[in-house]
Amino acid sequence: MAIKVIAQRREVKLGKNPGKKFVMRPDLYIPIQEKKVFAEASTHSGISAGVIKAAWDAAGEVLKTWATEGHSIPLPGLGTMRFGVRSKAVEKLEDVKTNLITVRRIIFTPNVDLKDELKNTSIQITCLDEEGNVLKRVTSGDSGEVEDNEGSENGENSQNSQNQGENGQSSQGGSNTGGGDNGGGGDGGDGLTND
Fold first, then answer.
1. Please, how many CA atoms are within 13 Å of residue 67, restricted to the half-sphere of its CB?
2. Has this prediction a pTM greater than 0.85?
3. Measured over all CA atoms, what is the biggest interatomic distance in the chain, rounded to whole angstroms?
């Protein structure tokens, strides 16, 4: 299996060096129908698709309930999920208000096995000209580094962001009563405030 990417030459007008450049975009990311997922899981497990769907729906309800209570929820075989916020930081206690929250987020943290799967999957790049004619095809030779989505906006790693929160410099609030990850911090940090 490989991740397919298109690199198409086009005119780039923004940025420091405008001009014709090859711009990458994913190729063949077509949504799979839900019923196909259940049918495939049924084939692999020997459990009927209807039973798998009922269990999946029930698990989804549990995930929503626990996530809104501030828990980090395990997604077996995949990683963890939690709700969070991006917010502005303020210096004064009286300035702490709900309007500091700029966006609510769903944060997914993949487990090591899933990250390794991505790291070890090759990337096939098809280079196209402006008209869509194939110029060449290449297969990735990159390190396979997987982005740490728990890092802060400023490029700090999740440990630094967590330390900021522990030192009282974070805009993050709330608790992580479900265990697991509570990264984020600083301006634009992640967290769930429990009132």
1. 20
2. no
3. 60
What does the pLDDT look like over 102-159, one tens digit per residue? 999 999 999 999 999 999 999 999 999 999 999 999 998 788 888 876 654 433 333 3
Residues 185, 168 contacting (CB under 8 angstroms): no
Sign of CA dihedral 130, 135, 138, 142: negative
| DSSP labels, 72-120 | PEEETTTEEEEEEEEE---SSGGG--GGGEEEEEEEEEE-HHHHHHHHT
What are residue 119's DSSP bridge partners?
none
Q: What's the distance, Cα to Cα, between the start and end of the chain in Å? A: 46
Burial class (CB in 10 A: 0-12, 13-18, 19+), 41: middle
**Residue 68 near residue 83 (C-beta atoms within 8 A):** yes
Question: Which of 31, 24, 23, 26 lies closest to 3, judged by CA?
Answer: 26
Q: Which two tokens stand for residue 120?
A: 């070890």
